[in-house]
Amino acid sequence: MPEKVTLYAISTCGWCKKTKRFLEENGVEYKCYDVDLLEGEEKEKAREEVARYNPRRSYPTMVVDDTVVLGFDEDRLREVLGL
Question: Could you tell me the residue range of the domain that residue 72 belongs to?
Fold first, then answer.
């Protein structure tokens, strides 16, 4: 299992919800930022992080240790998470 999993999501995004469900069903500990629900500096910082990993700024954007996974791609998620 990876050491650090961070998910940047939008609270109303279907693919983001599917990614969260996948992580939970597979017992993966992760930190999630629903960027649309953040405010002020916290929101700006999250948006900058997303842009750093994903210039298109699409969601979900997940960072697994040093590997970035864009969108919901179950096969790729299983691969990078070692499932």
Answer: 5-81
Residues in contact with 47: Cβ distance below 8 Å, sequence separation at least 6, in sequence order: 35, 57
d(CA 66, CA 3): 10
What's 45's domain CATH number? 3.40.30.10
Q: Considering its fold, how many domains does the chain have in total?
A: 1
Q: Which two tokens stand for residue 23?
A: 């992580």
The pTM is what? 0.93
Residues 13-49 pLDDT 10s = 999 999 999 999 999 999 999 999 999 999 999 999 9
| 60 neighbors 7 (Cβ within 8 angstroms) | yes
